[in-house]
What we know:
Blueprint: E1 2-7, H1 15-22, E2 28-31, E3 40-44, E4 47-51, E5 64-67, E6 72-73, H2 75-86, H3 92-95, E7 96-99, E8 103-104, H4 107-120, H5 132-140, H6 155-172, H7 180-194, E9 197-199, H8 201-210, E10 215-222, H9 242-249, E11 256-264, E12 267-269, H10 282-290, E13 303-305, E14 307-308, H11 309-319, E15 323-327, E16 337-346, E17 349-351, E18 363-371, H12 388-401, E19 405-409, E20 417-419
Parallel strand pairs: 1-10, 1-11, 2-5, 2-10, 5-7, 6-8, 7-9, 11-15, 14-16, 15-19
Antiparallel strand pairs: 3-4, 12-13, 16-17, 16-18, 19-20
Helix pairs in contact: 2-7, 4-5, 4-6
The structure holds guanosine-5'-diphosphate, 6-O-phosphoryl inosine monophosphate and magnesium ion.
Guanosine-5'-diphosphate is lined by residues 7, 11-17, 39-41, 296, 327-328, 330-331, 409-412.
Amino acid sequence: MVDVILGLQWGDEGKGKIVDYFAPNYDMIARFQGGPNAGHTLYVNDKKVVLHQIPSGIFRENKINLIGSGVVLDAVILKKECDAVASFGIDYKKTLFVSERTHLILPSHRAIDRASEAAKGRDKIGSTLKGISPAYMDKTGRNGLRVGDLLDKDFSDKYQKLRNKHQQILDNFSFDEDISQAEKEFFEALEFLKTLKIINGEYFINEAIQSGKKILAEGAQGSMLDVDFGTFPYVTSSNTITAGVCSGLGISPNKIKEVIGITKAYCTRVGSGPFPTELHDEMGEQIRKSGNEFGSTTGRPRRCGWIDLVALNFACMINGVSQLVMTKADVLDEIDTLKICVKYNVDGTETTQVPFQMEGKLLQPVYKEFPGWKSDITKIKNFKDLPTAMHDYITYINSVLGVNVQYISNGPGTDQLVVAL
Ligand code: GDP
Ligand code: IMO
Ligand code: MG
């Protein structure tokens, strides 16, 4: 049996905290896509930790953490993360597993990412510059190197062949940064990677399912960043949606049970691209400030806006969401009037569907206003004790999405989670 936790917006919904919270109920936590573009924050003994590639179950005792085949892996970043995890007394060598089919991010992938974004100028995607797109391009282009290749005696030759190919691309971009130091670190990190448990991920996870183990698949990014269904081309390069769990871990769709979708009580986006409910005013500033909306991976300020039920409804549909988690509800504590986007007006016509082209002045969000609750909810433990105005806000969202908010996160702390009755 496999449950899924994923983000329904443009990422940073609070997946790290929620996966860490639920991890004790599972035997294995598995990342199925993305790479170090992700930054998943959780607190361990009141200390903040940001994980990029290691699943967010790593701090829970006796849990297996799997980096699945659908992930693209940066060995240098992984090594640093492992050191950070070890500093909490975690013996990751026992609990961290890497699929042999996982693709490697090379230093030249990162260079191509930088060169490509620079060449795009004003049209840049706003990539995290971690080499994600070039690594996935080499996967679908059938050139990439995988973790399993490390054990091959021809690895150096394979590396050099791909490196030469990358040099041609970099030459086309007239990119002349020296990446030799990064390559040195890369090869050192590969030696470290080889000391981890490299396994056949598909048999590993299916045998676990067969023997009755409970698996939690941890999404990265968010549904609106999905390469097929997000705001293309301003997306990431993987399938961030439930379907990605099957292709990224090698499991069949009928093994998936609960799909737990996370949304913030409002909405954020980091990087370029359409964001219909974005606030360019004081209110946006206020949300950024009280929500501390700065990227966990890049530190960039996140764009902030109201919750968007058109986009959320779409995300619930394509993911088959069966439960909702609403995070960062406390960030709205001081706001007088809240807005919920219920429709888009596209060139004079109202719609509740996400259009092919979300960008542009022709698309205007249509809002319904709700009175704010204007009280501190961060210490509330029981659903019934949440303010009435908040109950109304949530009840309305439930009614539109046809899925209920089951958990409300009212602070970054692991214990700040209210269960809806
Ligand atoms: P992820 O990428 O989905 O794991 O989310 P990030 O970790 O990038 O960003 C979420 C941020 O919000 C982190 O700094 C969390 O510590 C914080 N956070 C999570 N839940 C809450 C919440 O309910 N309230 C507040 N105020 N912060 C939260
Ligand atoms: P988590 O898992 C928010 C965004 C980037 C950029 C676009 C493409 O922490 O929610 P990429 O590096 O993938 O080529 O960037 O996607 N992006 C994220 N935004 N949270 C993330 O991950 C993201 N990962 C990528 O900002 O707009
Ligand atoms: Mg994040």
